[in-house]
Specification:
Order of helices and strands: HHHHHHHHHHHHHH
Helix content: over 70%
Strand content: under 5%
Number of strands: 0
Number of helices: 14
Length: about 290
């Protein structure tokens, strides 16, 4: 448990360092044109958010598509032509990039499960949670998740202390009421603590985080708190690793410019992972003394 928590905080520290370097780069791009009669107006280059649609401007991904030279449609370029037709019809390029990268993220999560030994809550929830981190940022996402988990545990403790027994679905509906109150409380406090990124959170990330909190409660009820904390921590680690891959600009460009090659590579890796039946890294570390003897 201690090693998992240390790994989680190391990933958060790495992501914060990446975001800090991006912020320093943005400050370096401020353009100032001082004149005697005109006030200086700073111009910032915004960070591109893959979960938002680009409106009225041509982004760097669209420029890459326009600059790429294509050969015949068959047999190697059907997806490239389909992507260009979709973008020309108004489909956001960011959406296409995220869809292409989701199988990559799923393969990475599967590799961590089969080769490393991290379990988490399935494979789809960490993948979708990584998209939430892209939309909100890892710090805000983890903060919201902790708030949601806290406000989902409190009503269970209150009901237990009052010895009120409820069926599962009504109890979850009551827990959802507390969760909504907690999220609204955070949104109300966002202007006070001067965090506009919290005030701009949409309903989509909140719903995904509520799903993760529901899985936490299910495991806590079915097993115990320790297992629930372990699985939740591993899920956050998998989501942070996937978030790093989702925000890699070279990977985004490769997925958009070479979708056929990306899909074939992901399929081959999945087939190889599916045939692996050896020990996982965590198991090798746990039984290292036995294996050495």
């Amino acid at each position: 448990m201690r090693k998992i928590v240390i790994l989680l905080f190391s990933l958060i520290y790495f992501v914060l360092g990446v975001r800090l370097s991006l912020a320093q780069t943005l400050r370096a791009t401020i353009v100032q044109t001082p004149t005697p009669s005109q006030e200086v107006t700073p111009i910032l280059t915004p960070i591109r958010d893959l979960t938002q649609k680009t409106v009225g401007t041509i982004g760097p991904l669209e420029v890459l598509l326009a600059q790429q030279e294509l050969g015949p449609v068959w047999p190697a370029n059907p997806l490239k032509y389909a992507i260009r037709n979709s973008v020309a019809s108004g489909v956001p390029t960011n959406t296409l990039v995220l869809l292409l990268l989701l199988p990559v993220v799923a393969t990475i999560i599967a590799a961590f499960r089969h080769l490393v030994g991290l379990r988490g809550f399935g494979i789809f929830l960490p993948a979708v949670l990584s998209v939430v981190f892209v939309a909100t940022g890892p710090v805000v996402g983890i903060g919201l998740f902790l708030i949601i988990v806290l406000f989902s545990i409190v009503p269970r403790l209150i009901l237990r202390s009052l010895k009120i027994k409820l069926q599962y679905l009504p109890r979850m509906a009551l827990i959802l009421l507390f969760v909504v109150f907690g999220v609204m409380l955070v949104l109300f406090l966002a202007p006070v603590i001067n965090r506009p990124d919290l005030a701009n959170v949409s309903i989509f990330p909140v719903l995904i985080l509520v799903l993760l909190a529901e899985d936490f409660n299910k495991v806590q009820i079915g097993r115990n708190v320790k297992i629930a904390i372990n699985l939740t921590t591993e899920t956050l680690i998998l989501a942070l690793v996937s978030y790093i891959f989702l925000t890699l600009k070279p990977l985004q460009e490769f997925a958009l410019l070479n979708p056929e090659m990306l899909i074939v590579a992901v399929a081959l890796v999945d087939l190889l992972l599916g045939r692996y039946v050896g020990l996982r890294f965590i198991e090798l570390w746990r039984f290292r003394k036995l294996l050495a003897g």
